[in-house]
Amino acid sequence: MMKQILIINGPNLNLLGKREPAIYGSRSFVDYLKTIEPLFPEVQLRYFQSNHEGELLDKIHELGFDVDGIVINAGAFTHTSIALADALSAVSAPAVEVHISNVHARESFRHHSYLSAKCKGVIVGLGLTGYELAIRYLMMSDER
Ligand code: DQA
C-alpha cells in the first residue's frame, strides 16, 4: 500500500513567500510542495495548514492513526501549545518537527518547543528543505 505522510503547517505559514522573506524565503509552500511531490512518487503527501489551534488538533486526531508519519511545523504554537503536544502523543503516527528558520539563533522565546519531546526528531534552520528531509526520514522508518 502507498505510504501516506501528513504535512501540517500552523499559523502564519499560509503567508510563506510574502512573510518576512529574509527569514522565511520568497517561495510559497504550495509552490514548494509541487516541486517535491515528483521526488516521492511512492508517497501520498497530504497537506493541511491552519491558523487555528483547534483545527490543527482536529486534523491530527482525524489522520494521526492512519498516516505513516506527520511532518509538523506548528509555527508559534510550537512555543505555547501543550494541547498540540498531547495530540502528537495521542496518535500512533511518528512525527518530525520542522522549523524553516534556525529558532535557536532567534529570540529566546523560540528556543523552547512543547512538541520536540513528542517527536522522533527536529529539523531547524534548513529552510524548506527541512520538510523534504523529514519526509525522507519518515519513509525510511518502519515504526508507526
Ligand atoms: C517557525 C518558527 C517559529 O518560531 C515561528 O513562530 C514561525 C515559523 C519556522 O518555521 O521557522 O511561525 O516555526
Overview in brief:
The active site is at 24 (proton acceptor), 99 (proton donor). This protein has 144 residues and is of the alpha/beta class.
- The CATH class assignment is Alpha Beta
Number of alpha- plus pi-helical segments: 5
Structural class, from helix and strand content?
alpha/beta
Kindly report how far apart the N and C termini lie. 15 Å
What share of the residues does DSSP label as strand, in percent?
A: 15-25%
- Give the overall pLDDT as a whole number: 96
CATH topology: Rossmann fold
What is the element string, with H for helices and E for strands? EHHEHEHEEH
Describe, in plain words, how this protein is organized in 3D.
By secondary structure, the chain is an alpha/beta fold. The protein has a single domain, classed as Rossmann fold (3-Layer(aba) Sandwich). 31% of the residues lie in helices and 19% in strands. It is built from 5 helices and 5 strands. It has helices at 21-24, 29-36, 53-63, 82-90, 129-140; strands spanning 3-9, 43-49, 69-73, 95-99, 121-124. A 5-stranded parallel sheet has the order 2-1-3-4-5, with helices on both faces. β3 (69-73), α4 and β4 form a beta-alpha-beta unit. α3 (53-63) runs parallel beside α4. The longest helix is centred in the last third of the chain and has 12 residues, at 129-140. It is globular, with a radius of gyration of 14 Å. The mean pLDDT is 96. The protein binds 1,3,4-trihydroxy-5-OXO-cyclohexanecarboxylic acid. The site of 1,3,4-trihydroxy-5-OXO-cyclohexanecarboxylic acid has 10 residues, from loops. 1,3,4-trihydroxy-5-OXO-cyclohexanecarboxylic acid binds at residues 12, 73, 75-76, 78, 99-101, 103, 110.
